[in-house]
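In response to a reviewer's request, we include the raw inputs and outputs for one of the modeled complexes. The two entities were modeled together in a single run.
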Amino acid sequence: GEDVEQSLFLSVREGDSSVINCTYTDSSSTYLYWYKQEPGAGLQLLTYIFSNMDMKQDQRLTVLLNKKDKHLSLRIADTQTGDSAIYFCAERALTGGGNKLTFGTGTQLKVEL
Amino acid sequence: ETGVTQTPRHLVMGMTNKKSLKCEQHLGHNAMYWYKQSAKKPLELMFVYNFKEQTENNSVPSRFSPECPNSSHLFLHLHTLQPEDSALYLCASSQDFSGAQPQHFGDGTRLSIL
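The model returned the following structure tokens for the whole complex.
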């Protein structure tokens, strides 16, 4: 079955870049997503990338996809304290059918002053 | 404002109670989802409704009973829950279930079973 893995924690200083990594196992993945969850809130869609792309940039966010290694990363430039949250990687695979997402366990990003 | 509203935000109930969670989306979507989020575990998909028809039931115990009266509203009826059912229950919606349009989430209902 599908599996998505992320490291549990990441700590960075304000103003530095953050890089959150994710690996997945299903080679039929079509779309890969990044969601952000702040305390007491639901998941906020940040960005997503189609599997035929290598990179997508959206303001401070850059997504890199290495399809050969099944590796996805999210880079946050000029990280701010408001970026402190849990970041979830998710994949939509063709196996299983339908718009079903497999989520990682999330990476807790802590931004220190 | 995510376009997906869940009520109540918090719910404490005993194991013998009956309660319902409500989700409403204002995005014009046709697919709606229930997820369970427990600490240190990936999100678990529970149910999917597409154009008001249930298309997915991921082996969820019968003490959870979903209802989708129209494409904008989704309910989760709860009855005789167990302590391990304490979790954050998230509702999401997307354009439809066959496409790959992103899912948009509500803020969840934090459920505590006494």
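As requested, we also summarize the result in words. Chain B is about 0% helix and 55% strand. The mean pLDDT of chain B is 93.
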